[in-house]
Write the structure tokens for this entry.
Amino acid sequence: MNEPLQLSEDQCDCLQEIVNVAMGQAGDSLARLLGVFVTLSVPKIGILSPADVRRLVGQGCVSATRQAFQDGRGKDGLRGEALIVFGDSSFRELADLLDYDEDMEGAAEHELLLDISNVLNGACLTGIADQLGEELFYSAPSILGEGKRVAATLEQDRLQWERALSVQINYRLENRSFHCDLLLLMPDSAISLLAGKLDQQLEDL
Amino acid sequence: MTELSEAALRDLVDRLDTGVFVLNRELEVLFWNNFMAANSGMPAIEIVGHRLTERFPELPERWLRKKVETVFVLRNRSFTAWEQRPYLLRFHHNRPVTGGVEHMYQNCTFSPCRNAEGEVETVVVTLQDVTDLAMAHRALELAKEQLAQSSRLDGLTGLFNRGYWEHCLAGEFKRSLRSGAPLALIIFDLDHFKVINDTFGHLAGDEVLRGVGERLRAILRETDIAGRYGGEEFGVIATDCEVAGACVLAERIRAGMEALSFAYEGQAIRVTVSLGIAGNDPAVDDYQKLIAGADDALYRSKREGRNRFTAYHSG
Amino acid sequence: MARKQLRKALPASWEVDVSFATNGREGLQAIREGRGEVVFLDLTMPEMDGYEVLQKIREEGLKCFVIVISADIQPEAHTRVMKEGAAAFIKKPINGEKLMEVLRGYGLI
């Protein structure tokens, strides 16, 4: 069995603060995109099992998107996937905020979710990378599924890992029904590089 | 030479099998590569310096402005995918022969392009032709649909098979209980089918069954659901239909089958059918009882001389 | 981490006692106990967020000088905390010079 992935308390604390700043930048991006105030809460850092991910993504999920990110170093580099889980909210409301002209039907709804995912993931990942002195490249977002199909996509056999480092961020729009959760997941292989980067930050203090 | 010249780089961009164009914040085109020119029929000289939306008025301008503005403000890439937005610009596909599509499917990426001060000055749009991918995806979806369909059909007659037909009956029965709408069931059976098989062989028998299925489909309303219930037994679910209406339908089926004539190796094969009808009166609380009632009525038709229909009466 | 960053940004020569709180409720309690003449306040905190702390400070008429240090960089967040009575708003990650400027501006150092 592999060395269990673990960040020290200091490293966790450091990551928490970096994510906090990145979350703020992403929140600001979303606020500017939609022209509304975004309510932030404290991000959560943790180690998740596939069962945890299924529980988090499966509950009350309306739609979910995924987007991959990597630093160009290859399989041991800083990389992972960003999932965004959208709760029950009004698409029409969002469509109005984003100047969508068309009637909101399947495809347009999806495009809207992909646009928002891209904004949140892009801003958040860029924020994290900037603070670590790194550059992250990310793929185009895609729809992971809707409702029960998300859970099916994440069935046991599809998640072939034991643990992943997770960063969980919640975004809400003030006075509106919209809310979503951003879940950054990084595999074991990315942890040692990340831990090194965090140590550098801690040394600078 | 250790580095490509600017002219060589430009040539390279022009040779790409991908659309590349550059927009400023006002949506004016600053660059338009060969792929864009060749596919749009609009040469660079006619569009550079003009607003994209002026040259392509069919573009959803409000949406595009927001998309481009987002890249300027947030300084991050933005995307469009064919699944959600089949194309940005309506281009012809490059399948003039194999066809099957009406336009090119496109994936687009909008990337910020920064100047020396790090400010975003322009947006580079790349447009990828993903028509083949989209076609393959659609073919897969179609195959899945056909597979699902074929698992519901009886291979010989093309009617629903017994399993799926009963599933439909259960569903329609529940719906009628809820809505109070009438529902009738017709079950019929070919008279003396064994004789046909024995005299002309099984191939002839299959031919007859196929013909009966075909005629049945021609007779039925769109809302009737027909299935092959057993060997030579068929079922029809008549939705929103009283027993009286089902009797009219049953008579049309009876007459329709009687009029059939199959030419087989120089001989004419004729068939008749016996039918049983049952309706969902309040005493029927289970679709199985509906089947039992129709079966009972069918048996009476047989006993009373065949080539006729009977409606079930309890008691 | 945020505390270490703040301590690093504060002038070494500044002769003050520094107390730290891990959430809004603890922070408010420290202010009530008079341990906070100058308060560096985060906005996103567990238990009680920065907006609520500011509100309590105003409601209870607590005497302190609040500098908000937050990752929430929405212009609207800035406007709101200033309305709630904060003296200054500093974006995270903390820019040491900016912090010094604020402290100097209010004659705190």
About this structure: The CA atoms of residues 14 and 250 of chain B lie 70 Å apart. Chain B has two domains: 6-138, 152-311.
